[in-house]
Amino acid sequence: MKAEVNGRPETGQIWATGSQKFALMKGISESLAGRLIPLEFMPLSIDERTGHGLGQTPYLPSPVLVSKLRIPDTNEAWRFIYLLRRLSKSAKSTARLLTFLRSEHSRIAP
After folding, report:
1. Closest Cα to residue 32, out of 3, 64, 70?
2. Distances (CA, A) of 77 to 14, 61, 67
């Protein structure tokens, strides 16, 4: 697939689907950087699972609900994303520290 993608000048010409999380796959020797866009979808609805998916009416929020939504400006959205990433990294660091401290405590304590 890589050779096929590399041999074509246009983008988006091959779609490969599956249910495997790419990040969890072991033994992958290729990074596929610039060639892979992982997409995560919501699970199928009951109607979709029973073969009635095309009969569903799409969810559209009411005009009243839409009028109550506050849409952040671009800078605010980017600040929020930045803070979430920092918190995520901080949480991972804290978890690693706690794991280390527990292991050290069990090694030292009788």
Report:
1. 3
2. 32, 22, 19
For residues 19-23, average pLDDT:
66
Neighbouring residues of 16: CB distance < 8 A, sequence distance ≥ 6 = 1
78-89 tens-digit pLDDT: 888 888 888 888
Q: Token digits for 108?
A: 């030292």
The pTM of this model reads 0.30
Please spell the DSSP secondary structure of 34-74, one letter per residue: TT------PPPPHHHHTT-GGGPPPP---HHHHHHPPPPPH
Distance CA 81, CA 69 (A): 19
- For residue 39, CA distances in Å to 15, 32, 65, 92, 106 come to 11, 15, 28, 24, 42
